[in-house]
Write a structure and sequence with these properties.
GO terms for molecular function: NAD binding; oxidoreductase activity, acting on the aldehyde or oxo group of donors, NAD or NADP as acceptor. The chain has 280 residues and is of the alpha/beta class. It is 50% helix and 15% strand.
Length: 280
């Protein structure tokens, strides 16, 4: 049986992974939470809170289910107390990719992050609630990206299996590097994708403010979002109409800087990672 300590067990992600592991005979959970609110949520869900000292001493794996901005401070407190051979698992690449946590050769360090259920995979879910599990709360299938920062391959295989159980149901677990994961998040998803989506929402609000009925606008936009994604991402054997293709080219000139792709450059990526993990 693997002893798993979950730091931040009362937070959103901590509760999510606790639900995923609860009742699994392969794991003994040590739920660690500092905040009164988080401790209350754990108790209301029927969980038993562990003293940090006891849970960390027993742990084979320590999961950092805590905000990026405090991860380095918590790691600085926790890592020196862990016995040799313990694995640490971060749920976001930022604190490792930014160098906030120095390598400790006596420990094993890994990073995992869920992809969240893909748009078109949700359509294949049989259950209605699963089709609305946009986040990946344990109903809809999703994939993971998993990286070894340092440590043994034996530990990597064990922690990768733990990660798949935490975020089940899992379709695929993709092994990549920590740097590659940082390219995916924050650069590709949080910076680029969410930036574009936020602009789309602002555009919808502006159209509504100019008098187009809200329900008509939302229905029209949601349908065109789906078909646009299907065509541009080659999910449909179809081409944009001539007018739509022309509008797409014009949008690139009007909406985007010529050097927008600099968000993927190492200097900008590191600046973003440092900001996420607490600034300078």
């Amino acid at each position: 049986m693997m002893d798993v300590a979950i730091l931040g067990a009362g937070g959103n992600m901590g509760r999510r992974i606790t639900r995923g592991l609860h009742g699994n005979p392969n794991y003994r959970l040590h739920l660690i939470e500092r905040s009164d609110h988080g401790r209350t949520l754990i108790e209301e869900a029927g969980g038993q809170i562990s003293a940090a000292e006891d849970g960390l001493a027993a742990a084979d794996v320590v999961v950092f289910a805590i905000p990026d901005r405090i991860s380095r401070q918590v790691a600085a407190e926790v890592l020196p107390t862990l016995r040799a051979g313990t694995s640490i698992l971060f749920l976001d690449p930022a604190v490792i990719a930014s160098g906030r946590v120095a390598e400790v050769p006596e420990l094993n360090c890994f990073v995992v992050h869920p992809t969240h259920p893909p748009l078109y995979s949700l359509l294949g879910e049989d259950d209605g609630e699963a089709r609305r599990d946009y986040w990946g709360g344990g109903l809809a299938r999703q994939s993971l990206v998993f990286a070894k920062a340092w440590g043994s391959e034996k530990a990597a295989a064990e922690v990768e299996k733990l990660a798949q159980d935490m975020f089940a149901p899992v379709t695929d677990c993709h092994r990549i590097t920590v740097h590659q994961m940082a390219m995916l998040e924050p650069a590709l998803t949080e910076t680029l994708t969410n930036g574009c989506i936020a602009l789309i929402k602002e555009g919808m609000d502006r159209v509504i403010a100019q008098g187009v009925p809200e329900n008509a606008t939302r229905d029209f936009l949601m349908g065109h979002l789906q078909i646009g994604i299907a065509i541009i991402f080659d999910q449909l054997d179809w081409r944009l109409s001539e007018g739509a293709a022309l509008a797409l080219e014009q949008s690139k000139e009007q909406l985007f800087r010529d050097d927008w792709h600099a968000i993927f450059d190492e200097e900008n990526l590191q600046a973003s990672l440092r900001a996420i993990t607490g600034g300078a």
